[in-house]
Amino acid sequence: MEVHHHPEVEKKGFKEYVLEGLMIFLAVLMGFIAENIREGISERAKGHEYIRSFVEDLRRDTTAFAEVIAFDKKKHEALNGLSACYDTIERDNKSDGCLVPIVKNSVSNRFGNFSDGTMQQLKNADGFRLLNKTDKDSIIAYDHLARAYVNFESTIFQQRQDIARDINVKVVGFRAERDLFPDSKATPKSPILHTGDKALISEYFNDLLLYDRTIKVQASQLGRLKGRATGLIKYFENKYDMK
Questions:
Q1: Enclosing H/E stretch for 227
Q2: CA separation (Å) from 65 to 80, 112, 149?
Q3: Which residue has the higher pLDDT, 69 or 29?
Q4: Is 194 within 8 Å of 174 (Cβ atoms)?
Q5: With the C-alpha atoms ordered 202, 207, 210, 216, is the resulting torsion angle positive or negative?
Q6: By the 8 A CB rule, do 179 and 191 touch?
Q7: For 186, what's the count of Cα atoms within 13 Å in the CB-facing half-sphere?
Q8: In whole angstroms, what is the distance from residue 30 CA to residue 36 CA?
Q9: pLDDT per residue over 139-161, tens digit each?
Q10: Whole-angstrom Cα distance, residue 158 to residue 153?
Q11: What gap in Å lies between CA 170 and CA 195, rounded to an integer?
């Protein structure tokens, strides 16, 4: 019987095994590092995308705020004549033509609508973890200021607005109301008031005075918010070359 002899296989030394193990370890490590780098680059890009989107929201916000501020300024200018108008009516309640601009500017309001799509994504999708601490803190501070304004607008301001509307119905005559709103070209004629009740008229002017003070507080808050938004736009534009 023929016997086949197998060739001898050279055995690897300990050092070769160590070297092969080290090479495998380094390959896995480099793959892990490369993946982390790719994820880091992707997360930074996503974070910058959030910033760009947030800046676009801020630009829309500042435009909306400017419109509300202009609207409230017009109302305040009209209501600034409250004292003189009250004195005139107190002397002769039929001389109430001074109420025309006051009535027209005390029964409606505009809200500062926020573009909060990016803010909601940052909160709900854990997007804040993709931002550095300075950017994150700046955005959160703006959100706190914005929510404080919305709370004031939806509670205190809205309450004063409702009161002004309610008492307007009690003291302003139907024909005057019809000719004043919404865009009637008719010239309102006296009497604007349909009541001679001095107590009710005094209450009406008191409510309008409080309403005017509330408008000034709202305008001040909204002005600060607009200033903060404008500052953030400039900050992010300069930092991320977004101009």
A1: helix 198-239
A2: 22, 6, 12
A3: 69
A4: yes
A5: negative
A6: no
A7: 12
A8: 10
A9: 999 999 999 999 999 999 999 99
A10: 6
A11: 8
- Looking from the CA of 118 toward its CB, the CA atoms found within 13 Å total 24
What does residue 81 show for φ and ψ, rounded to 5 degrees?
Answer: -95, 15
Domain ranges for the chain, please list them. 14-239
Residues 105, 181: Cα–Cα separation, whole Å: 11
Distance CA 42, CA 50 (A): 12
Closest-CA residue to 100 (of 12, 30, 21, 189): 189
d(CA 100, CA 191): 10
- Those residues with Cβ within 8 angstroms of residue 134's Cβ, 6 or more apart along the chain or in another chain: none
Q: Where are the beta strands (DSSP E) in 43-187?
A: none
Q: Which of 98, 94, 143 is nearest to 117 (CA)?
A: 143
Residue 16 CA to its chain's centroid (Å): 66
What's this model's pTM, rounded to 2 decimal places? Answer: 0.78
Tokens of 38: 């790719």
In angstroms, the CA 226 to CA 232 distance is 10
Cα R_g (the chain), whole angstroms? 34
CB 168 within 8 A of CB 103: yes
Token pair recorded at residue 104:
């027209």
Contact 209, 82 (CB under 8 A): yes
- Concatenated DSSP letters for 148-200? HHHHHIIIIIHHHHHHHHHHHHHHB-HHHHHHHSSS--SPP-S-SBS---HHH
For the cut 90, the answer to whether the pLDDT of residue 65 exceeds it is yes
Give me 212's structure tokens: 């005017």
